[in-house]
Specification:
This protein is mainly beta. It contains one helix and eleven strands, in the order H-E-E-E-E-E-E-E-E-E-E-E. The protein has one domain: Glucose Permease (Domain IIA), CATH 2.70.70. The strands form two sheets. Strands 1, 2, 4, 5, 6, 8, 10 and 11 form an eight-stranded antiparallel sheet that branches. It has a three-stranded antiparallel sheet with strand order 3-9-7, with no helix packed on it. The longest helix has 15 residues. InterPro entries: Cell_wall_metabolism_enzyme, Dup_hybrid_motif, M23ase_b-sheet_dom.
């Protein structure tokens, strides 16, 4: 039974519903994903997350596998793992996990290392560390979350396969870098002085 057999108001409503259902979501509702990046190839800037997109991102394209997690030591000199190892290959592009300023870009014990102080993170500021990397930025450079800052070097790695060691510190305290990516759960606070319904 076609629309010509129904009253015109019903046909108009059906037409509007059909258009709304078929319409794509507005650009603000679109999901933006980091692209897959080939070794040695910087990600296209137009599709990277930036400062205005809501904060920290993974330091490698997509969501890399965590090869080894953070294992805080019992004491300042005790055994542990003071960061996380993310699966990667030599030549992969490393991006800034958060917006800030480069405080170190150079070699430590023969390995390329990069340290970024995070903007607006308090005193002493949070610092993210990346190794082994060949830095594409220099000390003092401002960096934005999601923008390329280095290329993963060939190693030696302290994990079985290739990996990026990603760390987080505040002063001398080592923290779990994955905490930058986690959004805390929503919490409802008690309302006082309002009668219950």
């Amino acid at each position: 039974m076609g629309c010509h057999a129904r009253p015109s108001l019903v046909c108009a409503v059906l037409l509007v519903v059909a258009v709304l259902v078929a319409a794509p979501p507005p650009p603000s509702a679109a999901v933006r994903l980091l692209p897959t990046v080939r070794a040695g190839e910087p990600p296209p800037p137009a599709v990277l997350r930036t400062e205005g997109d809501g904060g920290p991102v993974w330091p490698l394209a997509g969501r890399p596998a965590v090869v080894r997690g953070w294992e805080p030591p019992a004491g300042p000199y005790g055994p542990g793992h003071r960061g996380v190892d993310l699966a990667a290959r030599a030549g992969d592009t490393v991006v800034a996990a958060a917006t800030g300023r480069v405080s170190f870009a150079g070699r430590v014990a023969g390995r390329g290392a990069l340290v970024i102080e995070l903007a607006g993170s308090g005193a002493p500021p949070l610092r993210t560390t990346y190794e082994p990397v060949r830095a594409l930025v220099a000390k003092g450079d401002e960096v934005v979350a999601g923008r390329p800052v280095g290329l993963l070097e060939a190693g030696p790695f302290h994990c079985a396969g290739g990996c990026l060691h990603w760390g987080l510190r505040r002063g001398e305290a080592y923290l779990n870098p994955l905490s930058l990516l986690r959004r805390g759960p929503s919490r409802l606070l008690p309302v006082s002085g309002v009668p219950e319904p």
